Amino acid sequence: MFSGVPWRVSRSFAPLAVCEWGNFLIDSWFCPAGVRLAEGIRHRIPTTHPCCNGRLCVRLERVTESVNTELRIAVIGAGPAGVYSSDIFLRQLKKLGEELGLGTEARIDLFEKLPVPFGLVRYGVAPDHPSIKFIASALEKTLDNPNIHLYCDVEFGKDVTLDDLLARYDAVLFATGAVKDKPLNLPGADLEGVYGAAKFVEWYDGYPTGAREWPLTAENVAVIGGGNVAMDVARELMRNADDLKVKTDIPDNVYEGIGQNKAKVLHLFIRRGVAQAKFSVQELREMEKLPGVQLIINEDDFDLDDETIEVAGKDKLTRQMVEELFAIREMAEDMEDDGDVDFEGNPADRKYYVHFNSAPTEILGEDGKVKAIRVERTETGADGKMHRTGEFTDYPVEAVYHAIGYKPAEAPGIAYDEHGAHLANANGDGRITTEADGGEVRDRLYATGWAKRGPVGLIGSTKSDALAIVTNMLEDLAKAAEGGRVAADRDPESIDRLLAERGIRPIDFAGWKKVDAFERAEGAKEGREHKKVIEPDQMRELAHA
């Protein structure tokens, strides 16, 4: 008889004796009493064992929770949203699982279309953000968890389908993020020299399928946008290549490209006022410390009325941002008074204009190329509402970058909300719906991060978002049949066989570590912490070595 631990018999023989296996008494087949074998999974007693007398012993399979009783969750996207959600799901299940009748064990399979993980952290944030390496380290520690299985280089909708996943997982969570720009709906947006920020970011971050060269021939450049991405783009366009190389993981092609950058004058256009800007304080402080760059502002932009100051002061983050902007105003005045210098007092060879209350209305061209940008002066009330003045100014520029927001990715088989720019979900609670304007909730399908709420919020906000979605997932699983174990195929190796049958070779966590080790070694040769690998085939070769 079986005692203490469940076992499955894979071959049927009549028991002749009882032997002791580890601490458990089990029936034995052609095996004498008293034989002690090492505890194991799918362990076969060898027929040559002296106590077996040459007779075949039964194959025994230990039925563990990884086979029968663990919850199985598929997460699409290995960026911050996907990794945070995986971690929070496991933590919340440990905390609440028994109370909800779900148990405390789960396996999470994390699918990523790129050969390496971390999404936005690796490919969406400027390389000179000092805090990013700490975020990447935290994400890596999360992935180094035996209950989280990484499947990079596996694309949802191409390599695996929704039906494939629903057959093998109790729930599917989309954390697909965003890689495309919102379109710039202005006359002249199709002129040569107009670029979406996302493509430029892909270039300087070494995105596997991004451009390998970038035309940095314009001496006068405009950047449209009032958020952190606009700040990133503007800063990289004003960066010194040698300074960037020393402090970051940029690959050689980016170093060479920025080294040839011709930009001398940059205009950043922000539609609303100083008190309505969406920059983080960190972004502003990084803008202040650009070697060789003079900051120039319009004093009129800082003439705020009492009501605006009062409203801005009610929110801590807004107050800190406004205070930092006023500090920048003073810095800009000092730079001018000291003879057009940078933050260190050195002669500046580049000028960075920051224009608030400035709404671009048209991009002017000549011979199909950008010649200038037309900007309308605006007024912004304390309530944040913008009013146009009918006052226009043309600025000569040869390139325009627009950073007005991302468009989160669509997912095959999932309805998309074009207005909100996210996967359709019920009242923003992360439960996928059949239609963008509502419809019915689809069982076992969820969204988190930008896939759920649109391109809004910083990386840190992803954690609170993930907690809310995970709470909903656990609530739904607790109400489902079989304690949430609704997927028909519960073999943990099933997905591996399916991918192998389709000729797909996933890159797992160990594979990523090989890529990471190579990047560190290459960086060390140049006195750097990292040097990024950008070619997908090289990543695959390193990962599978």
Q: How is the secondary structure organized here?
A:
Blueprint: E1 7-9, E2 17-21, E3 24-28, E4 60-62, E5 71-76, H1 80-100, E6 106-112, H2 119-123, H3 132-143, E7 148-152, H4 162-168, E8 171-174, E9 178-181, E10 194-196, H5 197-205, E11 220-224, H6 228-237, H7 241-247, H8 252-259, E12 265-269, H9 281-288, E13 293-297, H10 306-313, H11 316-337, E14 350-355, E15 358-366, E16 369-380, E17 386-396, E18 399-402, E19 406-408, E20 416-417, E21 422-423, E22 431-435, E23 438-447, H12 450-453, H13 461-479, H14 494-501, H15 509-524, H16 536-543
Parallel strand pairs: 5-6, 5-8, 6-7, 8-23, 10-18, 11-12, 11-18, 12-14, 13-14
Antiparallel strand pairs: 1-4, 2-3, 9-19, 15-16, 16-17, 20-21, 22-23
Helix pairs in contact: 1-13, 5-6, 6-9, 7-8, 9-11, 15-16
